[in-house]
Amino acid sequence: STTNVFSSKANYGFIGPNDISTGSGLPATTNGLYVYKSNAAKKITLTNTVRADSILKMNSGHILAVSPIYIELGVDASNKGTLSYTSGYVLGKMRRWYSSTNSGIASGLFPLGQDVSGVFKNRHYYIQYTNAATTGGYLDVNFNPVAMGLSGIPILGIPAVGSCASSFDVTSTE
After folding, report:
1. Residue 4 half-sphere exposure toward CB, CA atoms < 13 A
2. What gap in Å lies between CA 31 and CA 40, rounded to an integer?
3. Is 51 within 8 Å of 79 (Cβ atoms)?
């Protein structure tokens, strides 16, 4: 018998009409991940944390990352990776890397979602730095389905968690 060894330098695509689990074959580090489910309601379940060094392409379908598992885009502040996004959600935690200012979906969108009794809801986070951070780092984002309310909004100067040194503001909960 032989053992398949999958390269961390390769791109991996999840294409087809059904739900799928990544199993033990998908390496923890990849060059790119592609999600092209022909049935947009279907998902890929990560069985371990996976990093896409260069690109995460989400055309149709969802990525399920149950804690402590997460999906990471980029390697470090110099190699941030790019999101090519059409549709679908990350159901769970996502990590993205930043180095300075950024703008647009490719560098600032966390396409998070929530599964509400089989109906997927948009819970996107869009992070945009308009003032350059003093040092680069990563942000981990996940959706917590607890009502935040409007009391105390805006919240200014929230310290960043992770390796980023710059604080951020919450100006809306909508």
Report:
1. 8
2. 24
3. no
**Which residues fall within 8 angstroms of residue 64, CB to CB, at 6 or more apart?**
43, 44, 45, 46, 91, 92
Residue 1 confidence (pLDDT) above 60: no
In 3D space, the residue among 21, 24, 20, 22 whose CA is nearest the CA of residue 4 turns out to be 24
For the stretch 72-102, pLDDT in tens is: 999 998 899 999 999 999 999 999 998 877 7
Parallel, antiparallel, or unpaired: how do β-strands 109-110 and 125-126 relate? antiparallel
Q: Are strands 168-170 and 155-158 parallel, antiparallel or unpaired?
A: antiparallel
pLDDT at residue 142, as a whole number: 92
